[in-house]
Amino acid sequence: METSSAWASCSSCKGDIDFDQLHYVCSVSTCNRKGTDFRFCSVECWDVHVPTMRHRDASAEAQRSPTREQWERENPPDDEGANDVAAENRPASAPLDLRDADLPRDILIVVSKLKAYVRARSGMNTSDSVMAVLSDRLRRLCDEGIRCAAADGRKTLMDRDFR
C-alpha cells in the first residue's frame, strides 16, 4: 500500500479514504475505540453502519485525515509494510486454520422449524437427509464469512461478512 494514496478504507463500502481528505466517524464512543476505528467516506456509508450497530442516538462527525507527512511522522516504519493501515489494525494472531478435521459434524439446522417452513411454503415433506446437506452448506457459508471478517481484522462475524 506504500504506492497507494489511500490512508484508510471506508468501513462500509471499502473505498479508499485518501490522505488529507474529509471523512466521517461515528459519534458513539464504542465505535472509536482502538481496534474498531470505524471510518466512512460519506454520510451515506455512515448511515449503513447505524442500524448494524443498533445506535439509538448517533451522528456522523466530519474529520480530516492526516497528510501523508503527518502520518509518516507519527507512524515511522519499523519494517516493510509498517505503513499499511490494514496490517496495523489486524490483530496479531495466528493465521486462520479452517481445516475440518477436529470440527463437530452436528446438524446446524433446527429440524422442526425447517420442516414446518417447507410444509407451510409448499405443502411438501422434508427428508431427514436434507439437514446434513444444508448444514454442510451453512458451514461453507460461515467459513467464507470468517475469512471476510479476518481480512477486515475483526474477531466478530457480522452480517456484512455474508456477501
Task: Characterise the protein shown here.
About 9% of the residues have low confidence. This protein has two domains: 84 residues, no CATH class; 51 residues, no CATH class. The chain is elongated. 36% of the residues lie in helices and 10% in strands. With 163 residues, the chain is of the alpha+beta class.
Summed up, the domain count is: 2
Coarse structural class: alpha+beta
Shape estimate = elongated
Describe the oligomeric state of these chains in a short phrase: single chain
Q: Return residue spans where pLDDT drops below 50 for at least 5 consecutive residues.
A: 80-94
Rg (C-alpha, Å): 21 Å
Largest beta sheet: what is the strand line-up?
1-2
Number of helices: 5
Strand content: 5-15%
Mean pLDDT: 81
| Gap from first CA to last CA | 25 Å
Total number of beta strands: 4
Helix content: 25-40%
Helix/strand order: EEEHEHHHH
Q: How would you characterize the largest beta sheet?
A: 2 strands, antiparallel
From the structure above, extract its key features:
163 residues, alpha+beta, two-stranded antiparallel ribbon, 5 helices, 10% strand
How is this fold's topology laid out?
Elements: E1 6-9, E2 16-18, E3 22-26, H1 43-53, E4 60-64, H2 68-74, H3 85-89, H4 111-122, H5 129-151
Short description:
The protein is an alpha+beta fold and 163 residues long. It contains five helices and four strands, in the order E-E-E-H-E-H-H-H-H. Helix content is 36%, strand content 10%.
